[in-house]
Amino acid sequence: MGLKHQSYKTSSSSKLFSIRSSTILSITLFLASFVYFFVPVQHFPEPLFWVDQEARFTGDLRDAKFPWNKLCFGPASENLKLAVFSKTWPVLAAPGGMERHAFTLYTALAARGHEIHVFTVPSDRRPHQDIHQGSLHVHFAANDHGSVNCSLAFDIFNKENMAGAFDYVHTESVSLPYWRAKMVPKVAVTWHGIWYEIMHSKLFQELLSNPNGQLPGPMTELQEAMPRLVDEIRFFTSYTQHICISNSAGEILINIYHLPPKNVHVILNGVDDTKFVHYPEAGAQFRQNHGVSANASLVMGVAGRLVRDKGHPLLYEAFSAISKHHPGVFLLVAGSGPWGKRYAELGPNVKVLGPLEPSELSEFYNALDVFVNPTLRPQGLDLTLMEAMHCGKPVLAPNFPSITGSVVLNEGFGYTFSPNVESFTEALEAVIRDGPSVLQRKGMACKKHAISMFTAAKMASAYESCLLQLAGRLVE
Fold it and tell me: Which top-level group of life is the source organism from (predicted)?
């Protein structure tokens, strides 16, 4: 277009060059238009770009506005002596998410040369000997009911501190109560759930269980949530530094709880990527072992405690609806709880597996086309999402800010839905329409993203650098 309005004269060769250039430009634009409108566009996961950009971050790391997992840290310049307060320590075959997180993180930090002292109780609530394995020391301090005896734990902590001062203290949520945290000059707390998020959880459960407001529901708990939120905001200042496991929780602590931005840090959870791996052959064998038809058109799976607040009423109703129109779709249910019996009522296309051994979880994920997490609990981040992604599986999860802001960043990683049956059913229909081929491509994108962000090594390196920074020991 610009060539038509040129007023100066050109030679014939110049005209020929202009004609050829415009012709080439026109052809290029035509082909580009063809590609744009008729060829499917690949959506590459954004974090693959973000990691490189923010790995070049300079300045005070406490000013970082993104998860520390995105940064690439070298070997630590110094080793720390860390005190850790944790609710429980796994001693059972099938530990819960919090226990898996604690074991993975502190084992990894000890392997990196840091002296770690964990003050906690066994997950089975029975007497056990303390654990001393290399640089990892687990001190059990239980009361008569098997819960943490805060006074006993603090006594052991003081003895260890006298033997050699701790460089920093870290607590998983309120395992170190705030009134004791005031006594510790250098303490960081990792929040796996805050009351602002729990309020939303109670809201979703109320709307789901009592949509018309005619039946008694958890409304009392919902009404009591606001005073508890106010109390929480007030005592959060008792902790010096705050670590959040999702971007959205970090924003809440700054914008709603009014904590100083320099005191709030985001470190996403990580899982053992040597155990959770893409292994299709193991998945095929798992299907065969559990009676999944070789003619199954699509296999979904859910794992965890089979209780109401994990969203199983949603999945039960939604899968009941789609199974009538899609007889080739199977659902594998791993876990224990009251909803196990309900799922068994749905017929032969639903396999209730019961609780799985840790060694079986990777095989379970590999047997799926898509992993489903219907939770009604927006607090924290479920490790099962990350485990499934490491196994090369896309995920289907609620559109909670913690999930969409830290895990399922775009549709290239899976599917999201609003926490109601109608939206969930529509999402399941979308999964079925896409089919195994599209799901496999999304699963590979999930795997790349998980390796870049959700590994035990990434998490441990981020905690290591964060605590070194807070202790004034990080050499930049």
Answer: Eukaryota
